Amino acid sequence: MKKTVMGIATGGKIGLTESGKTVVRTLDRISFSVSPRERIGLIGHNGAGKSTLLRVLSRVYTPTSGSIVIDGDIGSLIDISLGIDGEATGIENIFLRAALLGIPKKKVLQELDSIIEFSELGDFIKLPVRTYSTGMHLRLAFAVSTMINPSILLMDEWLSVGDKSFQQKAERRLNELIERSNILVIASHSKELIERCCTRVLWLEHGSIKMDGPAEEVCAAYF
């Protein structure tokens, strides 16, 4: 009962198979194409399918029907702390996280000093990450994750890490990364962010595209 009500109120369609297994249809008849240099914003209520669509685009999820064609390498900032090991030192985690992102070890060695400097961790970089505060942990994860240089960049909300001075530095780095990317796809609940960063917006509702058009037009209708 609860699942059915939640499904009606927010996102995907929930049903049962003949064997009694719960099946959630999170995306339904999604169809769109993206041109070079487009900045796509995904909006919609919680459960509308935004994060699922990002995971399909990043190849974490495989569509159960239909097809997806991706031309270009993908960089994902959906979970910047993925692969961080609390028992390993900051330096060891730089190599671990970079390996998960597909960044060659040679490039990490070339940029190691600048990553450490950017993270502002000082001598803590030699200590296990479990000794870090939440802010230190995020600064390390952010510094490594933004080493990527993909043609297609996927983001789930804007990344805000550290204190005010670090946030300004992080925002500059993030804007540079976005500018280097050919295509951006970002999910957000922020009207101001979507209008500032995106040229086009997909409004998702119950796993389908309700509206697809210029950022200002779709934001005006949704918000």
C-alpha end-to-end distance? 30 Å
What gross morphology would you assign?
Answer: globular
* Beta strand count: 8
- Give the topology string: H per helix, E per strand: HEEEHEHHHEHEHEEH
**Number of discrete helical segments:** 8
Strand content: 15-25%
Q: Going across the major beta sheet, what is the strand order?
A: 4-5-6-3-7-8
pLDDT below 50 for ≥5 consecutive residues: which ranges? Answer: none
Query: Using only CA atoms, what is the Rg?
Result: 19 Å
Percent of residues in helices comes to 25-40%
Mean pLDDT value: 90
Structure classification: alpha/beta
Strand count, sense and closure of the main sheet? 6 strands, mixed
Overview of the structural elements:
It is globular and about 55 Å long. With 223 residues, the protein is of the alpha/beta class. The protein has eight helices and eight strands, in the order αβββαβαααβαβαββα. The protein has helices spanning 2-9, 50-57, 90-100, 105-119, 134-145, 164-180, 191-197, 215-222; strands at residues 13-16, 22-25, 39-43, 74-77, 152-156, 183-187, 200-205, 208-214. A hairpin with a 5-residue loop joins strand 1 (13-16) and strand 2. The mean pLDDT is 90.
